[in-house]
Amino acid sequence: MRSRTEHGRGPYGGRPASVAAACLAAGLGMVVQGVVSAPQPPPQPRPRPALTADPPQESAAAVRPLGRSRPVRVRVKRLGITAAVRPVGLNADGTVEVPGLRQAGDVGWYEAGAAPGQAGPAVVLGHADSAALPGGRAAFYALGAVREGDRVEVDRADGSTARFAVDAVTVVAKSRFPTRAVYGPTDTAQLRLITCGGAYSGASGYRANVIVYAHFTGSGPTEPSPPARAGR
Fold first, then answer.
1. Inter-CA distances, 186 with 58, 70, 183, Å
2. Which of 16, 34, 136, 185 has the fewest CB atoms inside 10 Å of its own CB, making it the most exposed?
3. Helix (H, G, I), strand (E, B), or coil: what is residue 231?
4. 196 within a domain of the structure (yes/no)
5. pLDDT digits (tens, 9 = 90+) for 162-209
6. 11 strand-pairing partners
């Protein structure tokens, strides 16, 4: 099956544009694309209405946010997702940079926003697929299989790991991207994970985005990575 990854995101007039927003009526967004031959398309969450405001945050209210520190790795252990995090900023046209397709095993953190664990929404964006990677599978290939209650861990440069619990997973048409729900200010520490999803068209790419909303549940020291096994 052939598929293509597209991402376009960023502020416009001071507000972030939609993610993977190719050909928006307002002319916003930038397309980054690559054709792949993947054995299977990325998994998709069960369709549900897009959130127009922040998901419930009661369980996060009692957890004190962390200070600012750059994220270096994101993990969703149940799905086998482990990806290095690259800070990304803005392109000249006001869209947010994303890792290139040859670096699509990594994800991008929008560094102008909150850091994971810091008060506010931390936004992490990744490709679902890339022709430059084995099997065409990029960092967030499995993101559509996330469930409510799943745990997300983000290792930070200060040696701490910020832990999050998933509140909601949505599939949103690019033309109806919920800017406020994703980028709007919050009093508590929140995390948004975003990739492409929905139906695929050879002419326009993916028609939607998968958006994961999660809240901060606490932190601890980063566990050391297991040593690599010697080859036989």
1. 12, 19, 9
2. 185
3. coil
4. yes
5. 999 999 999 988 888 888 899 899 999 999 999 988 887 777 778 888
6. 16
